[in-house]
Design a protein that fits this description.
Blueprint: H1 20-49, H2 57-76, H3 79-82, H4 87-105, H5 113-136, H6 140-166, H7 190-210, H8 214-234, H9 237-253, H10 257-279, H11 282-285, H12 291-324, H13 327-336, H14 339-369, H15 391-404, H16 415-422, H17 435-468, H18 471-491, H19 500-520, H20 529-571, H21 575-588, H22 594-606, H23 609-622, H24 627-640, H25 643-656
Helix pairs in contact: 1-6, 1-19, 2-5, 2-20, 4-5, 4-17, 4-19, 5-19, 5-20, 6-7, 6-8, 6-19, 7-8, 7-9, 7-18, 8-10, 8-12, 9-10, 9-18, 10-12, 15-16, 15-17, 17-18, 17-19, 18-19, 20-21, 20-22, 21-22, 22-23, 23-24, 24-25
Amino acid sequence: MPTEQVPTLGRKWSGPSAGPGDGASRSSRARLDQIAALVAPVALVVTLSLVDGGFDVSARHIAGLAVWLVVVGLLVLGAAGAAKLGRPLYLVGGLIVGLALLSAISSLWSGSMELSVIEADRVLVYLGFFLAAFLIAQTDERRQRFAEGLAIGLALVALLSLGSRLLPHVIEVSHSLGSGPRLRYPLGYWNANGVMFAIAASMLLWMSRQAGWAALRWVSVGAMPAILLALYFTYSRGGLLALLVASGYLLILSRDRLWLLATLAIGAIGALPAVLAVQARRDLAENLPTSASVDQGVTVLLILLGGTALALLLFTGLRRLERRQGGLTGRALELSRNPALLKWIALATAVIALGAAIAVGGRAWDQFSSPDIQFPSQPEQHYGDFSSAGRSDFWRVAVDAFGEKPLFGHGAGTYEFSWEQHRSIDQVTRDAHSLYLETFAELGLVGGLTVLALVGSLLWIGFSAWRAAPEPQRDRYAALNAAMLAFAVGAAIDWFWEIAALGAVFFLAGGVLVAARCAQLKTPSDNGSGPEERRFGLAVVGLALAWVAAIALVGPLLVEHEINASKNAAAEGNLTSAIDHANIAQSIEPWAASPYVQLSLLTEFEGDYRAASEQATEAIEREDRNWQLYQLRSEIERKAGNKAAAEADLERARQLNPRAPELQGKPE
């Protein structure tokens, strides 16, 4: 295939049949399209990240509504007519829609209709991310800009996070001084930050060679030491694994792996002085709420700037070395592309990994599976710790829950009920810390295979797009593949699926790669009437999905708003207004348990125990595996003098959560 250079935003478009005015108009439109493709992922990733990663319903649903509006706008403006359609789109789109439908339908047998519907809504949000990226990335230029925008957005998040640690007096956030040594801002979870920063590092590595602007390549190298330092501050083993997966996969797929490896080493060298400086400054390393932490942060920032200057200097030398292409350099480059040598390196790596597994495997497994959860005394010791932090039991419960209902599961979003009933350790969690095991537990064999098919299809389509692309595009697709693979691996060992900012990275990258693959599969016959009918069908289906998604996403938003308004009114002593707001929430989603819980608490406060018990019963009918609802009704019945009913509810609460400390020692 011919090599196609990606134009910069400043290059004017011209065509053989375009007049001067027409050419200027097309050039202006092309620049606007590319700017939009650059800005869109930056805006989405940064905005979602700054609202705790989009974990909460409100932030995630608002982002989803905004993205679906973008999809509608693109379709109305004719994006469907220009879209290159193909089996990759139908396959991935069908799997996402199927997962959303299955999650919604599972509410019929779920332990909580409300939670299952919210999980279906989450999938609809991700479908919006995927479709928006697909529609935007319909030309090679836009795909380039979109990938650059994704890298820039991830890097900005990492830099803001690092700034909150080194300059807490300037960037004041909730997870600031005294919030623990592990960097939690902005996603609210250090492991999620670690994975995001690792993907950012791999994307910057790609941009250091393939960015459309020369200045952006230098900025990428200059930002890399800061990104790696931010990753270090998370003390996240998952983040380190994501860095190895993303960077390693990029190196494997790129013909420029020698230069990329050297650039990664330069970034690490630039970060090393700052990392060593942090280890020597305990107040900063442990994020203690002292003035020394602020002073040490400024000192480390200055050291980091020096390391950044060193990295840029080394990169200058690397570029000169590459341009000279001396005999030794040429030989090293040739060896780095030798298939036989690469196979031997892969074999040697596998042997070393196997030897390491044999040498430390027993001890590592004992620590991993131990129910005694003890965290290291020094934060940097997390990198050498083999404890699962409870994951072995999280996964065991997920497997047991799957065994109870293997075909369709217990219902989307209800893993926490299985955990509370069957756990063997005193740890609170809502997730199995594994997307795949949790889906098998909640949606059974059908749902588990659907998720595996979805993730596997996107990875295979991305790989196919890389394999069929010419050289200038190959590294771009390799970087996007690496980002998706890092998420897919991370989602197997943590709850990243629930963090919308990370899910956005996966589905935005997937949308670009599916668009690229559909373009590669385009045939000359695609100019006929059949494809036009399919494009019209895409517009109709897209608008219908947007309408369904809007209705589905608005409901929980309004319910949460009304319940919060009810709580605020109750705090101000206005019980009449509080009850009105709770009744509005109940009318919006009559299947949801949370409005009835709020009404039960309010009527209990008023002393109307009969009404409070009835409202609690309504909540239990909608969420019958939630032990807290039985505890609530037990307290109401006890106050009403119904001891037998109170004891029965308390016993049911104990059955659903035998290890709950709140239920221990209570009189029967």
